[in-house]
Specification:
The protein has three domains: about 120 residues, Butyryl-Coa Dehydrogenase, subunit A, domain 1 (Orthogonal Bundle); about 100 residues, Butyryl-CoA Dehydrogenase, subunit A, domain 2; about 140 residues, Butyryl-CoA Dehydrogenase, subunit A, domain 3. The chain is built from 16 helices and eight strands. It has a four-stranded mixed sheet. Strands 2-3-7-6 form a four-stranded antiparallel sheet, with no helix packed on it. Helix 13 runs antiparallel to helix 16. About 50% of the residues are buried. It binds flavin-adenine dinucleotide.
Length: about 375
């Protein structure tokens, strides 16, 4: 499907289309992805060809809800692939927001329709902007671009022909945001040790050794105002990961009712109905916030950060309750409750992590 066609798909039909693709193509390979045996490049490309990453290419009146809904459908079945969907969505978001016409011509349509896959290395910059750690990439100006050195410990949805957005700092303290190309021999992909989950997400360490970043690949020579523009979208898009996992955990709890309802009813305030109503409230807030991602007020940004914190908390709480409801059945490796719990913790630790969000809120003006 062409990008133009994808853009005219309305939100409901995009969600339905993604739902059907997920049931047919993703469900059978979830365990292989979870175990790290498979990185689902074909699925991601198909998802892109259906328009799942294309709804926020045109920034005129942009609304992030279609992207969040599509991501929720993916995460309903697989948290790892839901996370990769966010990686790709964030990449599209960066390029769509750039003023660099050459970069947009080269990559935007191909990233939005999944022909080119990739991710985002903004964890370290996002943590550095809030005083948690120092920027790890350093760059200096040369004719026609920059030379970049340094290392990022984890960047996901990568492979030999993938691209990613991140930020380096120049000696005079200027921050520059750019797209790196994994095919560049000066950017090495380093395998990571196994994780608790997310091993099928194409996650690598990145080592830059005098990598030349041409001006054509620069998203913003002044990264700070650019980050301010994209930050709400970056954070809100992550809602799709949590919403999908929460819905599935509620479903897992519902399914135990027939055989275990007589005892599970003592899990007070941890019933599927409790989580359903908390989810509805949170979804309403996310829906509202995601329809105006360029709003600039401090009050809006606070609500975005609060919503993101609640998504992480509710995802982990629902997955925890699903474990208690399923008991020994959910404790078995063959049951998805334990996978959902491992995935849920990722929503709480991926940048902005729970602790960073709490720090941000603590330091915000009242
Ligand atoms: C599976 C997975 C995928 C990820 N994908 C991405 C991605 O696509 N893009 C992205 O930008 N970030 C990615 N991250 C990083 C993630 O977003 C967080 O930044 C990371 O989990 C650390 O957050 P934290 O709050 O624990 O950091 P902090 O508590 O602030 O501390 C983490 C610090 O510890 C150091 N550290 C500790 N243990 C190790 C180790 N074993 N190896 C290297 N460094 C270590 C790190 O340098 C880092 O500074 C990924 C992390 C994981 C686990």
């Amino acid at each position: 499907m062409s990008l133009a066609l994808a853009q005219v798909i309305d939100e409901t039909s995009l969600t339905d289309t993604v739902h059907h693709l997920v049931q047919a193509d993703l469900s059978p390979i979830v365990d292989a992805i979870d175990s790290g045996a498979l990185y689902p490049a074909d699925f991601m490309r198909k998802l892109g060809s259906l328009g799942a990453f294309g709804s926020h290419v045109d920034l005129h009146g942009v609304d992030l809800n279609p992207a969040i809904d599509a991501m929720s459908e993916v995460s309903l079945v697989c948290g790892s692939t839901g996370f990769m969907t966010w990686c790709q969505d964030a990449l599209v978001w960066y390029i769509a927001n750039s003023d660099n016409a050459a970069l947009k011509n080269k990559l935007l349509a191909r990233v939005a329709d999944g022909a080119v896959l990739g991710g985002t290395g903004l964890s370290n910059p996002m943590k550095s902007f809030f005083g948690i750690e120092k920027l790890k990439l350093k760059g200096k100006r040369v004719e026609g671009g920059y030379i970049v050195n340094g290392a990022l410990p984890w960047v996901s949805n990568l492979g030999p022909d993938h691209v990613f957005g991140t930020i380096f700092e120049t000696p005079d303290g200027e921050k520059v945001m750019f797209i790196g190309d994994c095919a560049d021999p000066a950017i090495e992909l380093l395998p990571c040790d196994p994780f608790l989950a997310m091993d099928g997400t194409g996650t690598f360490g990145l080592q830059f050794r005098n990598a030349f970043i041409p001006d054509e690949m620069v998203l913003a020579h002044a990264a700070m105002p650019f980050v301010k523009k994209i930050r709400a979208g970056f954070v809100l898009l992550q809602a799709g990961m949590g919403i999908g996992i929460i819905r599935d955990c509620i479903d897992i709890m519902q399914r135990t009712k027939t055989s275990l309802g007589h005892v599970n009813k003592y899990l007070t305030a941890q019933q599927p109905e409790d989580f359903s109503s908390a989810l509805t409230e949170l979804e309403n807030e996310v829906q509202l916030l995601a329809s105006t991602p360029f709003e600039t007020s401090d009050a809006y940004w606070r609500r975005v950060v609060e919503a993101r914190l609640q998504i992480g908390d509710l995802t982990m709480a629902t997955a925890h309750a699903a474990m208690l409801h399923t008991g020994a059945r959910g404790y078995m490796k063959s049951h998805r409750a334990q996978r959902r719990m491992r995935e849920a913790y990722f929503v709480g630790i991926v940048t902005p992590a729970t602790k960073q969000l709490r720090k941000m809120l603590a330091e915000m003006p009242a």
